[in-house]
Design brief:
Helix content: over 70%
Mean pLDDT: 80
Low-confidence stretches: none
Number of strands: 0
Radius of gyration: 31 Å
Strand content: under 5%
Order of helices and strands: HHH
Number of domains: 1
Structural class: mainly alpha
Distance between the termini: 108 Å
Largest sheet: none
Length: 76
């Protein structure tokens, strides 16, 4: 009798393991392009790409204008 209980428990364990294994490999992205697009979108939402470049460009423009202004002072 205990063999039947043990066998039933083994089948339940096997069924549970098979169900978990099937869901473990599931992926929400159909292709690597979708994954990359989602990664870039998440990074943009986090603010990784945008403002630093703009700040850097503004700083360089102000530095260039300042340097240009310093170079023009001796001419007057």
């Amino acid at each position: 009798m205990w063999h039947l209980r043990r066998l039933a428990a083994d089948f339940q364990t096997l069924e549970l393991t098979a169900r978990e294994a099937g869901s473990a490999w599931a992926c929400v992205f159909a292709s690597s392009a979708e994954y990359e697009a989602a990664t870039i979108q998440a990074k943009r939402a986090a603010g990784i790409y945008g403002p630093k470049r703009l700040r850097r460009q503004i700083f360089l423009m102000l530095a260039a204008a300042g340097l240009f202004g310093i170079c023009l002072i001796p001419l007057f």
